[in-house]
Amino acid sequence: MKKKINIKGLLVIVATFILLGISLFPYYYMMIQSLTPWKQVDKVIVPGSFTLKSYNYLLGSGASAGMWIKSLINSFLVSLPTAIISVVVGLLVGYSVTKMRNFKGGKFIMNTLLFQMFFPLIILLVPRYMIVKPLINTYAGMILPLSVSAWGIFMYINYIKTLPNEIFEAARIDGASELKILSKIIFPATKSVTTIVFLSTFMARWSELMWDMLISPKVDMQTLNVLISTQFKPMGNVPGPMYAASVILTIPIIIMFLCFSKHFKEGINFMLK
Amino acid sequence: MKEKIDNLKNKGGFLGWIFNLPYIAYSLIFFLIPLIWAIWLSTTDWNLMSNDKNFVGLDNFIRLFDDPRIIAAFINSFRYLLPIVILTFIGGLIIGLLVHKLPDKIKGVTAVLFFIPYLTSGVAVSVVVRYFFSYNSALNVLLRGKGIAIEWFSNPKTSFAIIVAIVVWKMSGYYALFILSALESISDEIHDACKIDGAFGMNKFIHVTLPMIIPTLTTVVVLLSGLAFGLFTEPYLLTGGGPNLVTTTWQLEIYNTSFTNFQSGYGAAIAIASAVQIFITIKIVTHVMGKLNHKYGV
Question: Cβ(A102)–Cβ(B12) under 8 Å?
Fold first, then answer.
């Protein structure tokens, strides 16, 4: 009997490895090609030697290095505030809707949220562009329209709802102001929700294409994501740097998720319930 | 009077509205106003630049029905929907099941590893795919050596398949997490009962496991349906909607119409039409899954 179980377990592990290999092959390919001598790029799966020429082109001495470095900075400058705003707004709305006594707007806010969560945003694209047009090529124009995540607020509401009321009553009796409650009680208690909302909104903003293409036609305002997309065809004959750029685009997100994976997992478990 | 206000503040009524101010302001500026504007815009022939906006009533909407690009987007939304939902569903299910059966020590790590494709920007994926399938790439040289010459992006079938494959690859790990969570929540008592009753393997899977996770599967299917309607980056970068409109999507057509062709009034109408179609389709999908849940669910 024991032997039977081991074979099944082994099969599971083998199958897992095969599927993992397929899943992660594009990353292997991306990384390898970014380090491959330019003559061999895409011609071999395992290069004869390695070179940093592609990265040098983007970040070092290449003539266009400034452009690529700026775009990486832009990606951070846009994604970070977006994630922070989503978290802050989520906390504010989440707390006020669920736990603040005498706040009568709860139902109205919930209905607005639900409507926004299921609404096809593409309809709003052209008007939003027109509204934000005065802010074209500015960070504000890039950040503001996509800064609030209705889904994120919804997550906060659902989570804070489950926190026991006694803590808040006790705090209020002790004379704590609402802001203090937010910072000293709510914020620490919602770490897993904050993690998942922060990471998700950061990642979504980082990978955004359509809006950034519209609102930042000027090259030195473009995010790395947009820059790669515009250099897609022009650099068609020199793919090495494109691979390197893709690696640079992908790595921060993966690192962030791996760093916070514990909190993230808690968040996911909660979300699925 | 001051006392009254202080009391109000302390009781959270007034302060509550202050806390919601950012969200309300945001909803007003970036949601409500654009929504109304979009409806008005769809009845004009505006081109995003000039000062004359002529009211054309429902002309834009009538035009939709004869526009081959729109018809293509409409048909493609279903052509994408089916394989994406089915294949991602199966992929997520297989990954979920596999990870579920892994030893606990490596379960977490493996789940995260399968999740990684979800984190990748569509642009990065498109770069890899574009060059991997390029004419002189290792893959094509190998294939041509065997007498197989495929024009990956000029061939309607392969270009469509590539985009579907990208989406399935990206989303399987993400939805596997949903399914994994559902599988893990099946209590040990059920497993024990199955052992006692002699239910195992395929039999157990079909008659016990599957019905117990139908609500999660419903969520996955509905979310996937929404996703299929939102395709933009990959068709935009890899195929431009072609060849022959075979890979185009609503989002791509709306973008091109509004901003590349400067017909933003018409573009707004297309957007509204697509929203109606999404709404109806999701309603149908939810209804069907609800029926399945009712019949087979636990």
Answer: yes
A60-272: what CATH class? mainly alpha
Contact: A12, B101; criterion CB under 8 Å? yes
Most B CBs within 10 A among A122, A196, A259, hence the mutation to make, goes to: A122
B110/A16 CB distance under 8 A: yes
Q: Where are the alpha helices (DSSP H) in chain A?
A: 2-34, 53-59, 65-98, 106-117, 125-132, 139-143, 150-161, 165-173, 178-180, 187-189, 191-206, 210-215, 224-231, 239-259, 261-272
Dihedral, CA of residue B238, residue A58, residue A200 and residue B270, to nearest 10? -30
Nearest Cβ partner for B20 among A105, A120, A268: A105
Say if the Cβ atoms of A126 and B258 lie within 8 Å: yes
Mean of per-residue pLDDT scores for chain A: 89
Mean pLDDT to the nearest integer, A48-77: 88
Q: What is the architecture, at CATH level 2, of domain B67-124+150-296?
A: Orthogonal Bundle (1.10)
Q: How far apart are CA B28 and CA A267, in angstroms?
A: 29
Decide if A30 and B177 are in contact by the 8 Å CB cutoff. Answer: no
Over residues B51-73, the pLDDT tens digits come to: 677 888 788 888 889 999 999 99
Length of chain B: 298
CB–CB contact B23 A89 (8 Å): yes
- The yes-or-no verdict on residue A3 having pLDDT over 60 is no
* Sequence spans of domains, chain B: 2-41, 67-124+150-296
Q: Are B264 and B47 in contact (CB under 8 A)?
A: yes
Residues 229-258 of A with CB under 8 A from B: 229, 232, 236, 239, 242-243, 245-246, 249-250, 253-254, 257-258
The angle subtended at Cα A269 by Cα B82 and Cα A99, nearest 5°, is 115
